[in-house]
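User: Show me a protein chain along with its predicted structure.
Assistant: Here is one chain, sequence first, then structure tokens.
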Amino acid sequence: MRLTQALASTAALAFAVLSTSAALAEPPQPLPNGSACDAAGSCQSGFCADQVCCDTACDTGCNVCSKAKGGATDGTCSALTCMVSDSECQTAASCDEASRSCTFTAVADGTDCSGGQCRSGACVPKTIALNGVGGGGDGGSGGGTSKDTGGCSVSAAPASSGGVALGLAGITLIGAALMRRRRA
């Protein structure tokens, strides 16, 4: 009788161990759309795009599958939503299909804006825009223009190829002299 009880106890213990091992060995359940993922096999849909489980492969053109990438919702492939620029000197963004990202385009330099004129996508005061700062602007060469702005004057000296080199050499010498002075 004792042998029968011992065998029954051993069988029960073995069954309990096997049942626990089987429960632990079950593969994880696939993730629903919108869940964070790093491989398509972890998703119910079989698609992992933009680091979330997605309803489709979502890998063409300007389609994205996550809010972080500019999509409408996490897990649903949708067209990239490009934001409107906060600068009046830039056009609304459009999607670049190659990079799957939004790009803004600067309006033409010289276009009037609330603070002056547009230059390289930024609104700058007209006095700066008119004085040739930044290479002369649309109507000039940048050489030697000057404009009186009511007591203040802004001018741009003519550029020369040697002037830049001399300026850089001068800055280097001044920097070296300051470094020696600090060490002494």
